[in-house]
């Protein structure tokens, strides 16, 4: 309900078209609906082919199916993250059109194509092969919001030539997502090579002093490359959604 | 030096215009210069009125003056972060043109105006008044790279109406920097209100369970608003540089 | 045994009605019984329909049944917390009248109704759906001590309108229990909206920087809303018992 | 602005007393003011002689004086917490009527008496003498909101007789605030002795494994006495404000 | 080999009774044997009926049987700690005379009785019923070294009367072992009640802020009762061996 | 007041020698005095020349003098721990007979000699020279309670011969206090060399990974030598009081 | 490609032997290949019989077989670390020539012997028997790179004579790898006994305060023996590779 | 004293050249001296011009002077680490020949030149300028033990070209010491570029998530470059002594 609606309502109160009681009722919900405007704007954009996203961890297959069905009824696409293979099997059985990526541990039902966007590719870089599941979660999320992922996998800093040989790809990217576990050094090197936004994703890869991803997390937060930003451990989804925010006015 | 330059050099070697020795000399530096391309591109952009930035903490006034003089000789502006008042006094005495912001604890020498940029304003939001020094560090850095800060201070979530009454400002922003200590809840609320990129800056404000900023840091990393990104504790500078990356192709 | 009892005993010693030996015996236990008075008072209140509570975690079904049977023999109700479904099945088979809530993971045998109480409702609020099991543990405990829970679920701060649309319920509450994982921001917002006591319950919902509930815990302890109190991670039971203390003189 | 105001405004629009434009302007701020209702209610109560509270730590004497003057202009009392003696001296010099408690490190200007309240006394208990400054911060805050503190100091559990000899005082209390550093055992013992609400305040007293108050904090959160609630380390203020919430409908 | 032995050996070298070569051989091992004296003295004491102790965790049943057989061949008793029921079954099948305590998770083969000792009883106190397995590990170890355990279980500080009603037992003890999880408050209270050595054993009982036993550990290390000593989390064995050291000259 | 006293009081009530009122008064304090028995026994022992001990840290010189004067009035000795030199000077000026050890940072007023005790010496061992202040705190406390310290300083494990050359001293000790910072390895080696009780004291000596004493603390708690017990970081006082408990029935 | 190659290439361009296009192509890869030189040198050395190493943890048997087959095709040996028995069985079935060490949890296919090396033996020392799996991982890696391991197992510091009796072996070693869990004291003692490089490996052996290996890690980093270096928890492989670097110019 | 010495002593006892008493005296010290052999060998090497090293932190100038004088009397050189400027001034005044490096915070008295050594240079690399003091501590220690440092400063990974342009220096080094704070990424990159031993030194440079050096420490321990070893935070001295061990048989 924007100011024009309120004005119109007031005009109709003045003209007697609407009783005071009924106007009061309409205005009563105003505070929350008005605040809701932002959300609604946001949701409207999302509804244009962008899926609703369900965080699958800690939910039963039945719960996921039920939530997905509700969303699908509204005509939107659905993306589900963090679902293990056995859970995925049961969802597949119960939810028509559901397709699962075992690498990304995500699944989706896409009734219509993701929106066309003008933004350049989003480079998704990993330090090692063990970081790939997190990278694929980012990739699937990017695809779902209409962005174009560009994979650059297994280019950790201990073999610098692997990374440098891909520098063309890096420089082409509108946003760079850098995924690394263990010492998490890769975003610092990449941050020095590109001028685009760098979103660092620490992973829980490694043992002992890797602290389940916290060493990579802290490492990325103290990166000597300025302007690197960080998301939660193993959150490929979070990185993709951050890229989505950064490229929002470019094609969506 | 890009491939076309190398091709041209080789042509001139073949044609005898350039001797082998002199071509060798030119190529010798190639590996590093080529890698340097990104950096050079980046630096070139920066040289267009954007200051070089000196991290002042742990450096003596003499060291800061010496480094600043070197940069100024190349015609660039200089921004110095994290300098305490007493240190600033000594720099002011020794470095002509140096002006100091005691709130932001930053100083600068700006020989020429920052570059014109097309990007919208960058909202700089704080939860409390104690977060303002970090906010001002962000503001000074934004100004130095040619971006336009829009201050929204002291709008913590315990008094929600303060934040909501400023929602127009939030929605207008190209990027939103949210600065909060203690429980660090503000980015979650802001992330739900705007669709733009949200850069969260935890501060060391608070005591006991605030853990010197780590509670706010972890809080922001686990924000229930998707796509929020985070920088190091008290790093107003880092947040501004991240905004700079995000808005790089819009006016610079 | 209060001073009047001791005085009476002494009078009876003086008059010879009671021998020194038998008086000595009676007095011997005095220190502990006197201390026990508080406990006994407390227990007396509890016996008026309030169940004894068994912490089920780490106990075998056999142990739980045996303890429950002992309590039931004294005419009290029994509430058992933290019992997994498979354990609950075995208890159900062995303990007549036992009913189990799989959501709350609690079970009970209620021989008689909980006491009537005059206190207003206790709002039980959750940030997300994953926090509901902890909320239901609180609800079951509240019901067991005769308080009236008022559920407000899934109103996390990233979608502020969800919370604000329920503000009437919040303001009606005599005590508000706020349950949240991840960044634990909800109690700060609720604490700013209501004047009633706010009991914050951090949950272990979330991953990575959520630190298994410690980020929410520390966040709640440093809430910018003054007067918010906190209980242990995932302790819906603890929050309900705290509400019970706060409303003790209102109907029990 | 409550529903009656809106209804009245609408009536006046209908009758033509108020133009649509001017009504629109009044309604425009509605969302935030309406949300503000809770705060306003709360503030109204506070204005009845209850002081506004300034967190003094990290503020200059000049800032504190300026904020205090603004509050005093509205006729309210002012309480300032966490001010060191030297800072207090400068405030005393600049703020007429300011009186300072060096033990509590709080100061106040009380133009009118705190409100009369019906609630029983709030026991303020400390384990050792080093916890007294935190206790006095609680005491000063309780007095400021019109509650009656009842001091029970230096009754740590290693000399149980000290605590037990004061049990009469404990049982009389409407709320019990228990303040302890080191191992923080006192709330568990007190929680077993009284049925009233127990608010535990960990202090940073102790060294080594006391972890600057975190051992006491965690100890209190895992208390074997059920229904004990906890506030931040060294937060005597927080505990008093929690007591204020709990006793709000009893005399204010 | 003490100085008298060396002197005698040298005399025999001088007199020619022993060749230089053979004396050299004897002296060669001297450094280690001399150091070994302490160990040997110690071992000698232990061999007088005291079992060798095998830490069972992380060893296969086969390994445990093999090591036990070697020890038994030398005529000593054997105690095995930290063996789960299924592992115990396989050991029982393969090691004649092996008897297992499922509560203590220890097993033993005792060919001869433990030595007679003059020391008074060792009180083994627990805060809750969940601490009993650790207590029983201490009990079994005490019995194995010839000491007399005196169980005082489930006397946590939230119900002080339970502990105080057992104070006679506490005061009789030569050494007191106090076992508690969660907030670990019990040793502070016991340390104030008795003058004997108090050995505190933190247990991993509890959840959330109990930190897997570290809260109890730190709590016990900062006990306000002076002279309390602490062993590792869940180490009933360590506490019993400490008691053994303390009472060594009293009956062994 | 032990049972005989109560019986006698009752006899006197029966015979009329004591009125009921006056008996009631006497019994009124019974609960706490009876619990106090242990404490009183303990205090009685302490009064036999053993000083009361004041923890000096965080107390002003004036407070320390006042407390000391109160104790001295009862004829007891006084020991004050953790007082820095400047504070000690002011105490010396105000408290007649006060003598200060700058190494141990303790001071005392000893009106009469410490009690004679039969117990053997208590070895006080340090790994390095930086651990000596903590060792001297232990030494001063041992002397105050009538025990005989035997210093073995600077025998860290990196130069094993230093320790082994003192092994005679170690074996003679009734109790061994082992003080070490950094990696805290010394108690493990000493625990393997002696059969007496080993009390390990971690110190905050070291930097970086020494974690302010926590590495030594954890190291000592996980010592591979069985039966080693541990006190808080830097607590020479705590170790001496533990030795006092262990040797209590030997000469006091 | 070193400067001589570039010069030669340029000469051939000048002489027309090589076209500009083909020279360009060769130079194009220069930056990365030049950087690759180190790696290539390193790889060349490794190819002389030294195996490529696959980190087996987190990889499926199929992935390991596929990677191994690729390496074997190039004529190199393969070593796989961190493979559990059941995984090893499936690899053995699918990869001809694969032999598995269940103790070290490593497997290998060695087509040709490891290179001859001149370096002295590498002592591999453990504190306890539980550390042996990590030691064997080091041993297998040492053998794979052509170094000669010398096992010294179960010589923890609580029984010093065990270590001292093996001192001859220690002193003979070119490098000493010391492996210990729990308090991690062994490297300090060994570092004082030998002058050779000491590589400390903390293990996750122990419970409670052992912190899953972090106590041993921090202990080793703060060793009082100077010049001790440390690798990650449980990284027998890392220690062996460090020894390989240290002895690289001695026989390879 | 090695076996030949003992044999000779025994021969002389047999022949009567040496009395039993005097032989006994000589043998008495054997255990410790024999263990001391390693130390003595080591010390002998050190005495050949290598200084004894005093850890200056926590020692008074007077103590340092006294220890230094004792060492100098034996003809050895002295190196003192971790001395602040003001302390150094007082040592300079009291200790003839003492020269101080304010950058390295070390001082020395070198009566004679360090020994000639054959080992190649030791590269000392830093990520930033703030790491230089730690680097210089390493340099001074290397010089003191006769090794040749080769400085490569300020080559952090965010500007990769700086490091790569110095790769010739890196490859020439016999050992590489890599010093970095913040995210500690440099050793991973260097470890991939060189085959020599890499000793990583984390520094406490950085703030917030840098955790006072622990992020760099953990980062280095989990380096993706194999065979990198680590020393304590800020321990330039430790790294140099490790290099000394690695190069011991090459020129000393």
Automatic annotation (TrEMBL), chains A, B, C, D, E, F, G, H:
Gene3D superfamilies on file: 3.40.50.1970
Keywords carried by this UniProt record: Membrane, Transmembrane, Transmembrane helix
GO molecular function terms attached to this record: hydrolase activity
Record GO biological process: 'de novo' IMP biosynthetic process
The name this protein goes by in its record: 1-(5-phosphoribosyl)-5-amino-4-imidazole-carboxylate carboxylase
Pfam entry (one): AIRC
Record PANTHER family: PHOSPHORIBOSYLAMINOIMIDAZOLE CARBOXYLASE-RELATED, SLL1489 PROTEIN
Domain PurE: 120-252
Transmembrane segments: 173-199, 205-231
InterPro entries assigned: P2CMN_synthase_LarB, PurE_dom
The keyword Transmembrane helix is assigned to this record: yes
UniProt key word Membrane: yes
């Amino acid at each position: 309900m924007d100011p024009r609606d309120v004005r119109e309502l007031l005009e109709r109160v003045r003209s007697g078209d609407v009783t005071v009681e009924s106007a009061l009722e309409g205005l009563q919900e105003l505070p929350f609906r008005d605040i809701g405007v932002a959300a609604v704007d946001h949701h409207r954009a999302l509804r244009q082919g962008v899926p609703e996203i369900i965080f699958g961890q800690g939910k039963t297959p039945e719960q996921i199916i039920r939530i997905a069905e509700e969303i699908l009824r509204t005509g939107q696409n659905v993306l589900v993250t963090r679902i293990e293979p056995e859970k995925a099997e049961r969802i597949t059985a119960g939810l028509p059109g559901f397709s699962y990526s075992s690498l990304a541990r995500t699944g989706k039902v896409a009734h219509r194509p993701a929106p066309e966007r003008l933004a350049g590719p989003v480079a998704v870089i990993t330090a090692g092969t063990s970081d790939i599941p997190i990278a694929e979660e980012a990739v699937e999320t990017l695809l779902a919001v209409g962005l174009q992922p560009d994979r650059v996998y297994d280019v950790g800093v201990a073999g610098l030539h692997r990374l440098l040989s891909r520098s063309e790809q890096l420089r082409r990217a509108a946003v760079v997502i850098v995924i690394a576990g263990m010492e998490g050094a890769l975003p610092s090197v990449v941050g020095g090579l590109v001028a685009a936004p760098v979103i660092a994703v620490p992973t829980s890869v490694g043992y002992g002093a890797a602290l389940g991803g916290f060493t990579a997390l802290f490492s990325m937060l103290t990166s000597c490359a300025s302007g690197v930003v960080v998301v939660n451990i193993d959150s490929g989804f979070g990185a993709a959604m951050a890229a989505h925010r950064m490229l929002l006015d470019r094609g969506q």
